[in-house]
Amino acid sequence: xxxxxxxxxxxxxxxxxxxxxxxxxxxxxxxxxxxxxxxxxxxxxxxxxxxxxxxxxxxxxxxxxxxxxxxxxxxxxxxxxxxxxxxxxxxxxxxxxxxxxxxxxxxxxxxxxxxxxxxxxxxxxxxxxxxxxxxxxxxxxxxxxxxxxxxxxxxxxxxxxxxxxxxxxxxxxxxxxxxxxxxxxxxxxxxxxxxxxxxxxxxxxxxxxxxxxxxxxxxxxxxxxxxxxxxxxxxxxxxxxxxxxxxxxxxxxxxxxxxxxxxxxxxxxxxxxxxxxxxxxxxxxxxxxxxxxxxxxxxxxxxxxxxxxxxxxxxxxxxxxxxxxxxxxxxxxxxxxxxxxxxxxxxxxxxxxxxxxxxxxxxxxxxxxxxxxxxxxxxxxxxxxxxxxxxxxxxxxxxxxxxxxxxxxxxxxxxxxxxxxxxxxxxxxxxxxxxxxxxxxxx
Length: 443
Known about the structure:
This protein is globular. Strand 2, helix 4 and strand 3 form a beta-alpha-beta unit. By secondary structure, the chain is an alpha/beta fold. The relative contact order is 0.12.
């Protein structure tokens, strides 16, 4: 769907009018293309905690230009600060001293990443306060810098330092163009296997539900690009579109209504018979039946909960009980910002998507013993057929009320799912990552 305002605002006459009237100014977002470098310019490092040396070594090995000092920092592609060494509120001055002189040197579409220690893992209250303060700083930077610049805080538990590379690469790269203001947590895990960063999913089997269109189709494409064999699943009514997606990604189409009693078992049997199991499960299938609660029918309530939440529970149970999901597997569920903030006329949808978050957080703890990670992505306003059907004023408000002043694309959600699905993301579990351009109203 074309965002005509964004197209106009980025034209010659449009830029002048937008600037003169103080209108929302959506930047052109750089998105990943195969073969692109990790970053398109130098990266300035700061801070002196326990992540400083590992991060420097990772970026040096990736061929990233790392200026030696603030004085030589011009046209930066990213600013990366290790705040794990900040032990009290006075030490927070280090954030100001690093970022203040170079804030304007960050180029459009740049990246800000700050590493911190999970406050609950700190030994003293003063240290916990300082580490938690980092998150408020980063979220504010994400809303303040503009020009398509993103900002994230990455909480790295002690002994998890070797597991940060996958997350660092994702957040630095153009793959994370519509992800900002997020707090990602990395836990200790087995050291990641060697990874071809261009095809990290080689040899993996993935199933994507709701794959016939929108986010599901984009996810199938990105996972295939990264090397996975993709089983594209959707309801029989979407058979033609599903077949087109499966053919495009050289995967396979599986027509199945996951709300049917026998569906979870049929899916498990199919994956085991064809592939000996599965490595990646992406729960994307979802529907809306929007009405205010007083006007909502029983069918509208039940159908949304059945598709969006109960089906995920039943599929997980079938795959895990039969050990069809291999050790080291990945489960990624698609939630929504509606499940975090709620939305008028969506009590059923918001309940289902909040339930997805609860399921992910609980299941992540249970599955850790098998090195299986469980995470959720929570899209905001993404340009799909679903958002195209919104009333025009609601649609425009959804597009403009974030730091990017525009809607995201299905590929933005797909790239986030692919990062979470990577074998190198073993320390990332129990996370809920919003793909929303960072709301201007809330966190």
